[in-house]
Structure formats: structure tokens, C-alpha cells
TrEMBL record:
Keywords: Kinase, Transferase. This is Histidine kinase. Residues 114-209 form the FecR protein domain. Residues 16-56 form the FecR N-terminal domain. It comes from the Bacteria. It comes from Pseudomonas cedrina subsp. cedrina. The keyword Kinase applies. Pfam families: DUF4880, FecR. GO terms for molecular function: kinase activity; sigma factor antagonist activity. PANTHER family: PERIPLASMIC SIGNAL SENSOR AND SIGMA FACTOR ACTIVATOR FECR-RELATED (PTHR30273), PROTEIN FECR (PTHR30273:SF2).
Amino acid sequence: MLTRRHEPHLDHQALEEAADWLIRMTEGELNETERGEWECWRLSTPERGRAWARAQLLQTKLGGLPPSLAMSALDRPGSPERRAALGKLAIMLAILPAGWGSWKLAESQQWSADYRTAVGQQRELTLADGTKITLNTDTSIDVLFDTNHRLIHLREGEILVQTAPDIAPLARPFLISTRQGRMQALGTRFSVRELQPRTHLAVLEGAVKVELAENRQTTPLIVRAGQRTDFSSDTFGQVTAADRYVGTWAQGMLMADNMRLADFVAEFTRYRRGFVRFDPALANLRISGAYPISDSQRTLNMLAQTYPILVSGHLNGYWVMLSPA
């Protein structure tokens, strides 16, 4: 069960001003003058700072404005529709808890936000701080932003992260946690895959600092651009060169470079419902090429046309068998 301390009442005027700034940012990127005005407004009083913290939290939880409000908010300034949208948004901010740092995370593992993808689906998110996260197939994450941290908990699956610098003066660290440990982005682009009992990390840009969940005495590991590693809750794996195809799933492609068919099938089945089985005689057949994630039948046809493989489907394609041709 989650508990929180009493939240101070915020002035409705400050909340409505925060709502107005949130709407303006939704309409388009602020120019330099407007951004300076926003900074002056946000830092002018503690009340306005707290109101903006709630606006950020709402954006993080919902991934943007609710559609019903967004359309009205885009009307001309001063219009009744826009004023009504501002009022409704201010009310939403008023009932939204601002002090997420005071919330306790219990064994039920309930978090402040939750995003999921189905099997075969990819999803792109832009968080309130500008960080971009792409969720791969069958993935779920939880988001917890408070005054001290920006934390993403990867429950299962795989994500590609492009971090953004935090808005001054907060400068909160950006963290990814899994069952096996915690990673801190050091201005970077990287991928994380939770694959029990280990987490797999590959860094494309910048660097990532890794701490183990059950061995905090071990010196944190720094993984730099072009490197990859994996780790359990108490041990680090080797640091090696990252696969050059890391993250290509975000472009809808499954890349194989002299990959064993057995390993290819294990990856391929992540993106489709049903079963794919293969004759053991094909296990070590080497596969190369670019295969579309969203069209599993096309991928199977490509395999049959390129390699000595016979593809047979049963139960309307739910069960697929690969045999030597």
C-alpha cells in the first residue's frame, strides 16, 4: 500500500499559470525569449515552482495532455474554450500529488506510472524532461520522477533510451533499475534488456554507470560508448564490443549477421504470438540478413527463399515448423 504525507494546498492562480505554460509548450517549442519568461515565472516564487512540478508530473504520467483538453487548449488565446481547458487542467493539477519523493514503494511494486507494449509492438515515449524511450516487444516500464531522481524501472523486456539533460536547477540523475541492479546515464544513448537472471546493457553514446542490486560494495562499472556487458544481482559479466546492430529493432528490423538459426528463432519468436519449432538438424545453420519485425510471414518466406528450409504452418499460422528442404 502506498502512503504519502499531507500535501500543501497550492494557490489556484499558480496552478492555472502552470497549466497555461504547459499548454504553450504543447503547442510548440518555446523560443529563447519565451523560455526566459518561463524560467523567470517558475523561479519567482516557491508556489509557482511547486505548481510547475505538478505540471511536469502530470505530463510524465499521461505522456502529454489529455486529448479532450488538448484540442480545446489549441483554440485562440482568451477564447471560452481555451479558458475552460485551462480551468480543467488546473483542477487536475490541484488533485495530483506533487510530493512523489514522499511516497513509499511497497512490496506490491506499485509505481507512479506504467507503460506497456504487446507482443510484436514497439512504442515511443517522450518524457516530461525530454528523454526519449522506445519500448520493444512485450515490455513494461514504470516511471518515477521526484525532486531528487528521474527513475525508470524496467520490469521486463527491452528499451532504447536517449536521455535529455534535466531542467536547471534540478539536475536530477537519470536512472534505470532492473531486478539485477541500477544504471545511471552519464549523458548517453543506450539499450537495456531484462533477461532473467541477467540484465544486458549496450551503450551507443556517452557512458553508463552500473551498480549491482545485491553487491553494493563492488566498485560500480562504467560502460562506455561502443561497449556492452551483462550482469546479475551480484556479479558483472565481461565488457565487450557492442553489436553494431544494437537498437535496429527500433527501426522495425531484426538483423542477423552469421547468426545460428536456433538463436535467430529465439529472437524472432519475441515478436509474434504462437510457436516456431525447428528440426535440430537446422540449429547451427548460419543466418544473415535484415528481416521485418512487423511481418512475420514475410520473414518466414525470406528464410525459405534464401536457405534450405521448408516452412510449414498449422492452426492458421499459430504453429510453425522449420524443416530441412
